[in-house]
Design goal:
Layout (H helix, E strand, L loop, with lengths): L11 E7 L8 E7 L17 H14 L2 E7 L1 H7 L1 H14 L7 E5 L10 E5 L7 H24 L5 H4 L5 H10 L21
Parallel strand pairs: 1-4, 4-5
Antiparallel strand pairs: 1-2, 2-3
Helix pairs in contact: 1-4, 2-3
């Protein structure tokens, strides 16, 4: 069972991102402040949650949260500042948009660029430990998947409606056949030399 809070006396915002390992599209981050003692039987790390449950959870989190926000950093900025810094920037942007100011940030992972005026705790695999981080992981993933699915309508052939821009064999083959789009991350190795694309 996930833990409801890191502290008992501070307003906590869980923060997580989606899309760090993708070859195309933005990195998307979410920040979520849940009510104290909040519980949801389905809430877990987005990677351990089915598509159907993620969509239900997104609606419930957006309805139940005291505050939530989502922000993205586009692929061209990722190329300029690198994916790690872009992930932190997306989290900062999401925190900026919260209608309630948190007193503590719970960050999924082991590193973070401090947010001015707020303490933070980095928690490895935090999306599987703390409810607010799990909620942020759900919002980040569902919002990003929705965005990539919409982009797939503009750029058919890459399978973004199912792979969300991640390096699946089908996506790699499409890059080799069709070339890259304005949404591909040029700083990433899009076609590794040793990859047999047609296995």
């Amino acid at each position: 069972m996930l833990i409801s809070a890191f502290t008992t006396d501070r307003i906590e915002a869980g923060c997580d991102e989606a899309g760090r390992g993708s070859l195309a599209g933005p990195v998307v981050a979410a920040a979520v402040i849940l009510p104290k003692g909040y519980r949801h039987s389905l809430l877990n790390d987005s990677k351990k949650t089915s598509l159907q449950n993620r969509e239900k959870l997104r609606k419930d989190i957006e309805k139940d949260a005291l505050a939530w926000a989502v922000a993205k950093v586009p692929n061209d900025e990722i190329d300029r500042i690198n994916i790690l810094n872009a992930s932190f920037r997306a989290m900062h942007l999401a925190i900026d948009r919260l209608i309630i100011k948190p007193q503590l940030l719970l960050i999924d992972g082991n590193r973070f660029n401090p947010y001015t005026g707020l303490n933070h705790e980095c928690i490895i695999k935090g999306d599987g430990l703390y409810l607010s981080i799990a909620a942020a992981s759900i919002l980040a993933k569902t919002h990003r998947d929705e965005y990539m699915s919409a982009l797939s309508d503009q750029f058919p052939g890459y399978g973004w409606h199912t792979n969300a821009g991640y390096p699946t064999p089908g996506h790699r083959k499409a890059i080799k056949k069709l070339g890259i789009t304005p949404y591909h991350r040029k700083s990433f190795r899009l076609l590794p030399n040793q990859l047999n694309l047609f296995d």
